[in-house]
Amino acid sequence: MAKLKLYDLEPSGNCYKVRLFCALLGLDLELEPVDLMGGAHKRSPFIDKNPFGEIPVLEDGDVVLRNSQAILVYLARRYGGEDWLPTDATGMAEVMTWLMVAENEIARGPGDARLHDKFGFAIDVERARTNAARILSLLEAHLKSNDWLALGRPTIADIACMPYIALSHEGGVSLAPYPAIQAWVGRVKAFPGFITMPAL
Amino acid sequence: MAKLKLYDLEPSGNCYKVRLFCALLGLDLELEPVDLMGGAHKRSPFIDKNPFGEIPVLEDGDVVLRNSQAILVYLARRYGGEDWLPTDATGMAEVMTWLMVAENEIARGPGDARLHDKFGFAIDVERARTNAARILSLLEAHLKSNDWLALGRPTIADIACMPYIALSHEGGVSLAPYPAIQAWVGRVKAFPGFITMPAL
């Protein structure tokens, strides 16, 4: 098996998604911590791998990929068969709608609130918490009648969306009003091979 | 051929992506304008099709889909063969990285600036313009040595990213400093079957 290498930061939910999915797939993953405090992500050699200057980056032989959602798609297609991301148009698109929620509404909500509270980013935290309340309400309504985000089974949609939802408290957002979300997080945590991260 | 129906708003770049891609694929598309000014997107029957209360929504027989990027994935997989979105892991993931740029950096940059200037949304427009400058610089650097965003050929990455980039001026952001971006927009506009939208 090709050795996979992840340019990583432990408290990053986006890096954790990749670590978690590799663990669920039983893939051997080498972690290469990136010194973000020291600015290593804005300099060579890292910036040559990812001009966006952001973690995570995954290397698999000659393949070099940025963006956690795109990396999940890669791993699912390459190592996961049809289980985690089907290739039929309807199934794939349904999973995609939730990958976009991870990239947009969750990032602009609980993700941004956590960046402000935990890492001191200059972000409008009130707006982030307002955004968080909206997406959490939408997720709660969906998960009241669905065990999983897409297709009635675990997919990379759940892997992409769970981390920053489950870390909401680190951005001052409580999940107490959202019992269906809490139950769904619990189902993800019960996956065979599940690994955790700090504060989860 | 199944009749496709798009719940649409003419000045929406996200709706335009879907209209454009259907035109390029030669698909018959019925447009159903949604009265956003009147709040139709927040009421039944629309909200039952998309609990997020947002356009576009695509119907294809029994399939109902939200989110413009996910709709492009659906159309590419269902009607576009391997041309616009390949199914191999590396090719698909490379396209995905750019769909995520459309959903995140472009939305938070030129997209938000246009929502502020053209539609009066209460958005931090200075931050949106700062975000716009960052993603435009990254795109300019990429397009200086690449004709297309992914895979060396036209893909749904170009369809997903072009509209809000080409509409930047409606958010007070000029493309004058970005000749490679302007040339790329011109290449997309030269696609056989290309259709335009207001202000493009």
Could you describe the 3D structure shown?
Two copies of one chain form a homodimer. With 200 residues, chain A is α+β, with helices and mostly antiparallel strands. Chain A folds into two domains: 76 residues, Glutaredoxin (3-Layer(aba) Sandwich); 101 residues, Glutathione S-transferase Yfyf (Class Pi), Chain A, domain 2 (Up-down Bundle). Chain A is built from seven helices and four strands; from the N terminus they run E-H-E-H-E-E-H-H-H-H-H. Chain A has a four-stranded mixed beta sheet with strand order 2-1-3-4, covered by helices on one side. In chain A, a hairpin with a 2-residue loop joins strand 3 and strand 4. In chain A, helix 4 runs antiparallel to helix 5, helix 5 crosses helix 7 and helix 6 crosses helix 7. The longest helix of chain A is centred in the middle third of the chain and has 31 residues. The mean pLDDT of chain A is 97. The interface between A and B is medium-sized, with 33 and 33 residues.
Number of strands of chain A: 4
CATH architecture of the largest domain in chain A: Up-down Bundle
Our estimate of the beta-strand percent of chain A is 5-15%
CATH T-level topology of the largest domain in chain A: Glutathione S-transferase Yfyf (Class Pi), Chain A, domain 2
**How do the SSEs of chain A run, as a string of H and E?**
EHEHEEHHHHH
Biggest interface, and residues per chain?
A-B, 33 and 33 residues
Overall geometric form of chain A: globular
Largest sheet of chain A, in brief, is: 4 strands, mixed
The CATH class of the largest domain in chain A is: Mainly Alpha
Mean pLDDT of chain A: 97
Radius of gyration of chain A: 16 Å
User: How many DSSP helices of chain A?
Assistant: 7
Overall number of structural domains of chain A: 2
Oligomeric assembly: homodimer
Poorly predicted regions of chain A are none
